[in-house]
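Look at one such:
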Amino acid sequence: MTYTIVLIAIILLALISRGLAERWRVPFFLFSCFLILGLLSGFRYQGVTSDFQVNYRRVLQAYSMSWQETIHYSAGFVHQIFRKLVAVIFHDPQWYFVLSSLFMVGMFMRCAKRFSPDVFLFVLLYYAVFSFFVANNVTRQGIAVAVSLMAWDSLLEKRPIKCAIIMAFAVFIHVSAVFFVPLYFLSHVKFNRNTLYGYILLGVAVVVFRSPVVRFFQRFIYSDYTEGSFGTTGSNPLHIALAALTLFMMILYIFREENNSYRMEEPDEYMIRYKNFILHGSFMFIMCYVLSVVHMAMFTRLAMYFKPCAILCIIHGIESERRTRNYHVYRIGVILFAIAWFALMNYSGKLIPTPYTPFWEFPERLLILP
């Protein structure tokens, strides 16, 4: 019920914001969603068998670690420094989840404001379909994804040193962030229908000969995913629907844009890189989701870095139809898809955590005694 109320609140906030002065519509909507989603995630508490508890107890452990041990921590020392600071300053591991949630949600709201022509649809897809609930389960990687969003501006503005510094910071939080780095170079590679055809052929080859690819990820990125462990089987087959939706909107976007029937503005160098970046990232998302279904669920975690690209690709695919009668059909169709997806995941108990329980209902939870 909590998650449904939040979804209704997002829709109501979008309607309320339409009655405001134009300069306040987007700030009001995004800031309100930032507070609601950030605190919803930050106030959560989960039981003893969850990844939440792993993070909770590691914050407790960080308090007793020396700073030298913290800096030499093998699994993302920057992230461990964050845990250590939370433990020393607040003496309550719940603050780790509050601060990390506000940061992650805040970066997505910033991405919506900076890059999305339809902020309501961005937030709806983020909450109901793509990223919000996944980050509740894999918080460390969610933080790395949020840091990678900070690199978008420097990437698109061709400031490689600043981009490299931000991405190094993300990698020191979670090593999987290295797979976001190729997008810096791919943003300089023109994405058109020929590129799409080549990607599709490459994608088929990767799916057919996927075993070496999987072994590489298991060895260097997700070493905890050994044969027979959680995450080594295929993920939810319905994820194919997300890949198909993204691919359809990508095709729509490419063909309309190439036919000059849709232009965000004059295609200067920045906008060309932006288009290339979004489309390359979206296809990486598609490939990760296809591989997650046909082979191993761990690829949905790698897809987290490319989900913002997929969200924007869907939105630009819809926007490419703004001059046609199909615009409202596509937009309403995607909204209904998002609501139906959310309802299905909520009903089947796949939203994390289920049921939602705030931390104050657990007075027996462990704290740090100063």
Q: What stands out?
A: The chain has a mean pLDDT of 85.
